[in-house]
Amino acid sequence: MSLLDVRDLSVVFQRRGERPFTAVDKVSFTVEPGQTVGLVGESGCGKSVTSLAIMGLLPKRGNKVTGEVLFDGADLLKLRRDDMRDRRGRDIGMIFQDPLSSLNPVIPIGVQVAEVLERHQGRDRRQALREARELLDAVGIPDPDRRLKEYPHQISGGMRQRALIAIALACKPRLLIADEPTTALDVTIQAQILTLLKQLVDDTGTALIMITHDLGVVAGLCDTVNVLYGGKVVERARRHELFAHARHPYTHGLLNSVPRLDSTRGERLHAIRGSVADNIPWVEGCAFAPRCDNVVDACLEGAPTLEPTATGGDLRCNNPVSEEVAVP
Amino acid sequence: MTEPTTQAGTPAPRRKDERPGRAGGASLNRLGDRKKARLEELAQASAGKGGVSLFRDALRRLRRNPAAIVGATIIALFVLVAIFAPLIAPHDPVQRFDELTSQLAADHIPGATDGFPLGSDELGRDLLSRLIYGSRQTLFVGVLATLIGLAIGVLLGAIAGAFGGWVDNILMRVTDVMLALPALLLAITLVALASKSSQWTVILAVAIVSVPVFARLLRGSMLAQRESDHVLAARALGVKEHNIVLRHMLPNAMTAVIVQATLTLSVAIIEAASLSFLGLGDPNRDRAEWGAMLGDAGVRYFEVRPELAYYPALAIIIVALGFTLLGEAMREAIDPKNRR
């Protein structure tokens, strides 16, 4: 059984007097124990909303969440509020994008790490602080004794993200959701944080959902990748398959738009034309059709379905990029 | 994490400081030597001290602000005078002195004489001693009124901000009503409602007037906190709702309120003085109180001896200014935009 089985998860934003907006549209994917799964897509494709829906952290008012989120067979969406709260932080950890604003500015780092241990493991403050020290050490924060007493604004961005990772992993959750954990960091720190995440995830056997728009992150970390577009999964493949033979024109475009060391000098970077604003609703056709180079008539006659591919992935496209075309 | 692993690949920012000195050690010129010594000094200094707390950080900024120093000095002097009034005051503030009363006339109140540096008041008491004792009254009423107002305001604001919805709606409409009335008018109304005016009716009236400001302020920042990333992060860790409110929202929302309390102190002092000035304060005329001194003698005998009005007025202004200066400086120091 999969650790996490998301089935037909939909999130619809409903504001009074406005047309409902489907942010996440029947997304399904699974995460096996110890596996790292990527959710990739550009801004507004529904990555973060998916993760918040899994955690049950979307505000109750104005949102309609449907579908199933089976964690160990139990549907998280049907859990009582208190039960879900007990699971957050203990079974599922989460790391957010901005490490400064995700830490409480008026509480020392140590107490923030200790808090989650007190909450879920029933430790007393002293014991929890001792463990917090070890955790900070484990995520590579130098001089943990001193950092325990410091406040978030006193430590560097990379160290803050390390502290957040320590907090998220404090209770040894079986699943960690990382929502763009490196976006707010500079490139050298990004690499360190990713290495650290990979190492910790490997050491502890924690499954990881990596939410990112950065294909470089995916390449280094993920076993399976789900590419989201307009709230739907448009392509799913194992990492190597995806990078070697991206079938969906959108994925293909994404990969082409990454600068490469071996490209000829002066060659222009490929860009996907248009923007998310050009999307058409999925009910009318493929949302990507207005920006797609491979568009055919069928693309504007209802949404294509997600079909399994020969290589064991899934694809939602009427006219995919042929398998023979090697990604540059 | 199975066991603490010290990573080879991770940098140790603290240690980075030392590297330039060590790496270039062989070919260092004198400048490099000095640099190296300086770096070692720095490393030692930073190794010794633990984490700098938020409070100390703000204090450091306060110390560099001249307005804060002036304000704090005024307040410190004021508090010292209030505490040690019996030691400082040359005379008993209620005693009427024969050498002064004998000189009182319809058109004459004696000025400075031997042993009475500021002269007499309208009943032949020592004006200086009464001014000094008046500071106690002002401090007592101002601080107590502010504390009571703060406590009630924080309670209401926290409830409104934490629960939201209809609770918030009801509480905020009540504060709207209170805010719609001019503060002093509301205070006068409240004092007038009490059958017998006393020191406590003044304190309560001034406290209640300050409640809506505190409640509004706290509720606003609580709502802002509710949307903040670190509260979402706390939720993602399964922290219980009451802990989220008490540990994560309230302390972050309190800074604005605490600063407001310092500013409210000066307003409370002025309002309390105003009520006494209008004759709505403590009916005990023996008790020295700046507002009453200003209202009773200051106005009635202004043509005879204007100093009776000048001195208490000056005292009120200076003390209120002290609290305002410190409050403004605190607001600046704690403002997160100035942090880092």
UniProtKB/TrEMBL annotation, chain A:
It is found in: Cell membrane. GO terms for molecular function: ATP binding; ATP hydrolysis activity. Residues 6-255 form the ABC transporter domain. PROSITE patterns: ABC_TRANSPORTER_1, ABC_TRANSPORTER_2. The keyword Transport applies. Keywords: ATP-binding, Cell membrane, Membrane, Nucleotide-binding, Transport. GO terms for biological process: peptide transport. It is a peripheral membrane protein. Pfam families: ABC_tran, oligo_HPY. Belongs to the ABC transporter superfamily. PANTHER family: DIPEPTIDE TRANSPORT ATP-BINDING PROTEIN DPPD, OLIGOPEPTIDE TRANSPORT ATP-BINDING PROTEIN APPD. NCBIfam families: oligo_HPY (TIGR01727). This is Peptide/nickel transport system ATP-binding protein. The lineage of its organism: Bacteria, Bacillati, Actinomycetota, Actinomycetes, Micromonosporales.
TrEMBL record, chain B:
One of its GO terms (biological process) is transmembrane transport. It is a multi-pass membrane protein. SUPFAM superfamilies: MetI-like (SSF161098). One of its GO terms (cellular component) is plasma membrane. It is found in: Cell membrane. Residues 1-30 are annotated as: Disordered. Belongs to the binding-protein-dependent transport system permease family. InterPro entries: BP-dependent_transpt_permease (IPR050366), MetI-like (IPR000515), MetI-like_sf (IPR035906), OppC_N (IPR025966). This is Peptide/nickel transport system permease protein. The chain crosses the membrane at residues 66-89, 139-165, 177-194, 200-218, 257-280, 309-330. Residues 135-327 form the ABC transmembrane type-1 domain. It comes from the Bacteria. It holds the Pfam family OppC_N. It comes from Micromonospora avicenniae. The keyword Transport applies. Keywords: Cell membrane, Membrane, Transmembrane, Transmembrane helix, Transport. Signal peptide: none annotated.
